[in-house]
Amino acid sequence: MIIGENIHKSFGDLEVLKGIDLHVKPQEVVVLVGVSGSGKSTLLRCFNFLEEMNSGKITIDGKVINPKKDKLADVRADVGMVFQHFNLFPHKTALENVIEAPVTVKKMDKEKAKQLGMELLEKVGLAEKANVYPSKLSGGQKQRVAIARALAMQPKVLLFDEPTSALDPELVGEVLQVMKQLAEEGMTMVVVTHEMKFAKEVADRIIMLDKGVIIESADPKTFFENPKNERTRQFIQLVQ
Ligand code: ADP
Ligand code: MG
């Protein structure tokens, strides 16, 4: 569904991604782990062209993306992103946040968008908060609105960048639950997270990034019980 080939990215002299190859199959859930600064966010941002690669190739659902020619708004419609800090529009209600992109980018009829928006808020358990502003929502509720907003573009892939890292511990579960449900429904997902229980339960594959290189790629059982790389072993000891 999404293929990254030989992705290189530097910021000035700092080489952050050193030739990443990552193939994500339809309906696959890939969890991306690695210590802070290893390049996880940069990789996700390259995948939806929020970051310009120095070199490399990205194919989405069979189509090679040319960032110079293709409309990036259309690419981002296919590759949704959920951020650590939600990034909701503060002056828009939950429902208005969800329907913003379908109406402005996809030119969806407003009534139709509202109907879709309500269905998505229902799906994340927040139909009753449709007319509430983000400032009146908990962190977990804001993140669930952000997930509904990403889904509103009917993406082919959803990228999550530490979606629960900014949440109070008691609010983490409700967001992971929604993500787990999406995974079960067959959404293709790449998830950066430190929630190892989620990784064990939901991931088809766990990938470890270390200094801009993929050093491990395995199913959860192999990843935790029989990792190949010494750095992965050290990482597992830290997080468990
Ligand atoms: P992770 O998400 O794994 O913590 P990041 O992808 O955020 O890692 O960052 C990888 C490295 O790239 C870090 O050293 C970070 O400081 C650097 N970096 C990230 N974004 C920028 C930027 N816009 N300008 C300069 N350096 C950056
Ligand atoms: Mg990051």
Question: What is the count of DSSP helices, taking H or I runs of 4+ residues?
Answer: 9
User: Helicity level, as a percent range?
Assistant: 25-40%
Bound ligand species: adenosine-5'-diphosphate, magnesium ion
Percentage of β-strand residues: 25-35%
Strand order of the largest sheet: 6-7-8-3-9-10
Order of helices and strands: EEEHEEHEHHHEHEHEEHH
Number of domains: 1
Which stretches of 5+ consecutive residues score pLDDT under 50?
Answer: none
Main pleated sheet = 6 strands, mixed
Q: Cα distance, first to last residue? A: 31 Å
Structural class category:
alpha/beta
Counted beta strands: 10
Taken from the alpha-carbon principal axes, the silhouette is globular
As a whole number of angstroms, the C-alpha radius of gyration is: 18 Å
Mean pLDDT metric:
96
Structure explained in plain terms:
- It contains 9 helices and 10 strands.
- The protein has 240 residues and is of the alpha/beta class.
- The chain has one domain (2-88, 156-239).
- The strands form 2 sheets. It has a 6-stranded mixed beta sheet with strand order 6-7-8-3-9-10, sandwiched between helices. A 4-stranded antiparallel beta sheet has the order 2-1-4-5, covered by helices on one side.
- The longest helix is centred in the last third of the chain and has 16 residues, at 169-184.
- It is globular, with a radius of gyration of 18 Å.
- The two termini are 31 Å apart.
- InterPro entries: AAA+_ATPase, ABC_ATPase_HisP-typ, ABC_transporter-like_ATP-bd, ABC_transporter-like_CS, MetN_ABC_transporter-like, P-loop_NTPase.
- Keywords: ATP-binding, Nucleotide-binding, Transport.
- One of its GO terms (molecular function) is ATP hydrolysis activity.
- It comes from Planococcus glaciei.
